[in-house]
Task: structure prediction
Amino acid sequence: MIPLGPAMQYTGQQPVDPLSVDVYGFAPIDLAGKTWTSAFSLYEDDGLSIAYQSGEFQRTHLRFSQTGEGVRFDVTPESGDGAFQSVSRRGYRLQFHGIEGTVNVVRLDGKAILAAGAETGGSARYWRGRRTNGRATSRLSFRRRRPTPSPWNSQPSAKSHPAR
Result:
């Protein structure tokens, strides 16, 4: 997983919105009967002060799980003090690479969302998929609601490991 924000000349020049995430699938041979997971936490604060020490920071947890039957991607924003937000509602652009098969359905908060080009009724939630050289590349764009309060301390973390 590689999160990418917009190009900036200095911290805080513009909001990190949307957040683009390139997600790379696991090797098909490794998926036989197993679930593999990759997780990352993006840490953000105001970039100027020490207010993060009193909880003014946001951590966005990104978690990708893959089996031979499908994939799941979870986004969970958390606020250190329950109020701080790096952006009020963030858009996400997820680009999946190296995942075999065809995208049949995409769900957001448990509800299926429409493919790009379908009548969305003005919704900013959509997905687009294409097959290239036997691999599917899919893009999902959506906006996420406000972060929830964080029970964690203010240290950033990242990890990648197979699920148990």
